[in-house]
Amino acid sequence: MSQPGKFPVQGAGLGLKRALMGPLAEFSPEQVSFLEVAPENWIGIGGKYGKELRKFTEQYPFVTHGLSLSIGGPTPLDENFVREVRNFMDIHQIKCYSEHLSYCSDDGHLYDLMPIPFTEEAIKHVVGRIKQVQDIIGRRMAIENVSYYAAPGKEMEEIDFINAVIKEADCDLLLDVNNIYVNSINHKYDPVAYLKALPGERIAYMHIAGHYEEAEDLLVDTHGAPIIGNVWDLLDVAYETFGVAPTLLERDFNIPPLPELLGEIDRIKASQEKWANQRVARLAHRV
Description:
This protein is of the alpha/beta class. Helices cover 44% and strands 18% of the residues.
């Protein structure tokens, strides 16, 4: 499996939705190695749900995946919110904070993830904000390669933009396999070439999810459907290229019964075991 100490969590994970809290508490499935929450949905929550979350964070390792930081936004960073995130992570002993390489606010929330222009100016802007966040939370943060449907003001390729941000900010990468596939169809590029050009040594963990096919040349990143074969294949390429990394199944709506989700978790774990074994075999062959 994943190399101990290299990643904040290990194995295969699942996004913790309130609809899943009952089934997960009842069955405690052994194949789920870690859970993920959006801190915005839980900061300041007490009562029944707060107690239930505490039980989960005592039982499972957690990562946090933010929704509203707006790392590329034009308005000043909400430092009070970032301090609340740090406090939330400290309380629940959470090691990793990830966010989208996008923006979602400008003097008010836009309720969507908007594409940051792929420009040198935007790189400097985002890098400064990532460093600011890392200083406040006292940890490295991970940024996620996002799905996008337009590239306003584009001056460079997406892969060059994200690689420059990661290098100059000295942050980690949340590698979203489905987003690479969705963008490769919508923007007509080779998903394998894109994936292999990412800095594998910066991967904190991975996401995999389903999407909606609006048309042959238009996919929408919904997290509301089962994962398709091409995305599973790309996950295999990621493991083969970078080694096995912790991988989380995202499902945000049309959430099926827990056993159906566990079937996809089992497939993640089977792929992880396959590529971990192949790595061991290759190393043994070299000796």
